[in-house]
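Reagents: none. Just compute today. Sulfatase.
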Amino acid sequence: MLIVDDLNDWVGAMNGHPNAKTPNIDRLADQGTLFMNAHASAPLCGPSRASIMTGLSPSTTGIYGHINDNDIKRASDKTAQSVFLSEYFREHGYYTAAVGKVFHQKVAAGSFDDYGGRVKGFGPYPEQNMVWDDPRTNTDWGPFPEKDEQMPDYDSAHWIADKLKQAHDKPFFMACGFLRPHAPWHVPQKWFDLHPKEDVTLPPYLIQDMADVPDISKRITDHPMMPTTEWAVENGEYRNIVQGYLASVSFVDSCVGIVLDALENSQYADNTAVVLWGDHGYHIGEKEKFAKMTLWERATRTPLIIKPPKSKGKQVTNRPVSLLDLYPTLVKMCGLPRNPANEGRDLTPLLNDPTTKWEHAALTTYGAKNHAVKTERYRYIRYEDGSEELYDHKKDKDEWVNLANDPAYFEIKQKLAEEIPIEDAPWSNKTYYTGNDYFNQKTLEAGGKGKI
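Predicted 3D structure written out:
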């Protein structure tokens, strides 16, 4: 299981950006099923990963913000009864190993047999920030350090590669969590050179894009520690930021390649399933932001590739799926008994036939009672105060025109609203940070450790 932090659709196989250069992720996509419409359960690392590893949605657990890995099972009655994905495989005879960022920080204690660790933070860091200097965020960009060997992701890739060279007398479940392209967008110069600044295409950006969204939408997506697109344009940094993100994606792609090469050269090449996912997407200037933590397409959508041991080869599906679906899908693929506590859906029907009938939507939650519903055509957002947004991706893939108040779409909104949970669990008092003052206040009210 290959996990990529803050990766949006800027990979070659997804045609998300014309300058994307990701030959190794593309290679995996050519061998398996690429889910073009996959979405995170939450647009933030902590709750997204907790959802994947427990098989439970944020609205069930109350984990809407970041949480310490060892507090997940103390977060609610539901999580107390949960079995982590890795634990479930171990209970069924698997050897389990992990390295890097798998849960939010490291891994929950005892959740894997072997853990190769991860560095603190997202370094290495230069002595001082290169461009953006706000202590509340890792955001910064520019070439650093000199060599790939100085990057933690390089070490993580080789740790897993070494595990694949070993003889195992049990089936194994291995997870490798990469840090890039999480900010800071610092990678060696050669990856910046791969994306010459003068050739970089800027993303679609609409001035006053936020004019037709409700006030609550503006409040919960206000992240003052990050630069705005207006600032980046006025200061001549927009193209530099895009270059930095593209460079970071290409670097982590090379680390994915290290693991894929090791698997292909191992004795396990023909009987090992491979899955790659990002924990959520990321705005690179769209909607006035360089951030995640929104309910729009750019922050919820992320790559998902699944290659079974006996793959049919390249397949692409546009059916809407959730990362919550990973737990039951991997269990089914490996022939293990179903875990009845799982809330996700088994995706193996789409692995068998990517065009099969699929009458489901993907749900993303950002704080209690704030939900986005995504189908093949529409995105419907409803906030805790009843405010709404609706976008028709057939006509408006950039989500520039909010149709929520158009009477012609009333019945469509009603149908999409059926996907929204009837009840949301209260905020867990184990959450400690959400990246937004509006939600940090709610964690404090819940008895958590919100930072304001």
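The first strand starts at residue 2 and ends at 4.
Action item: order primers for follow-up constructs.
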